[in-house]
Amino acid sequence: MKTMRVLQALGPIDAKNISRDPLLRWLVFYPLLLAGLIRWGAPLLTIRLMVQFQFDLTPYYPLLMSFVLLMTPMLAGMVIGFLLLDQRDDQTLTALQVTPLTLNGYMVYRLSLPILLSLVVTLLIFPLAGLVEISLASLLLAALSAAPLAPFYALTLAAFAANKVQGFALTKALGVLLIPPLMAYFVPPPWQWVFGLVPLYWPVKIFWLLYADTPGYVFYVVIGLLYQLLLLFLLLRRFNKTMSPSH
């Protein structure tokens, strides 16, 4: 009930702030545009590559869908991260520390919201993109494994960016994290562990195993979630330091 009260109190404020910011509005609708681009663009590109270069793109459709799996929590996290930066700049977070809603309670709401958004949006846009067929149970598990990346991005922005300008620059830098896990698609399994240092690797590896109906995905689910929780704990500590009066 307390969580619902927080949602009822802060949800409309968040929606209003997002609607006022052109960047945040763009980030909200980007997953839908991405799904549409893949759904209609990938088949056309496949035909063109086959005609001109006799290259079949079809076996790499799971790789393209991995990009969808990673982009959704990334964008959800960036939206929440920018909201955190805004509310830190206008002293909203400082004011919360003297209200019945504690900073910890606020952060529970802030970090659970992008997880929920990422999960729901992934379940919606994956069928819309429609390049690969995967069972609902497998898609749900893959989406759940990727969802903690949303608060990872949100906390990274809030913990390391001093303002929205730095936050925008940091989002560009964080885009580099998409490259290593997708490169792992072309690397034999024993060497893929190197890419496990990047938290984005674990969700895509789980997706590949589920799509291929390969056993052993439970191991990757457990390791991936534990690693993501560790990173979230470290980022939350860093964020709390930025909120301390002595910082």
Describe the fold and architecture.
This protein is mainly α and 247 residues long. The protein has one domain (2-243). The chain is 78% helix and 0% strand. It has twelve helices and no strands. The protein has helices spanning 2-20, 22-53, 61-89, 92-96, 103-129, 136-146, 149-160, 164-174, 179-183, 189-192, 201-211, 217-243. Helix 3 (61-89) packs antiparallel against helix 5 (103-129) and helix 5 (103-129) packs antiparallel against helix 6 (136-146). It starts with a helix and ends with a helix. 32% of the residues are buried.
Order of helices and strands: HHHHHHHHHHHH
Uncertain stretches of 5 or more adjacent residues: none
Averaging pLDDT over every residue, what do you get?
A: 86
Strand count, sense and barrel status of the largest sheet are: none
Distance between the termini: 34 Å
- Calculate Rg over CA atoms: 19 Å
Structural class, please? Answer: mainly alpha
Q: DSSP strand (E) fraction?
A: under 5%
Tell the overall outline. globular
Helicity, as a percent range = over 70%
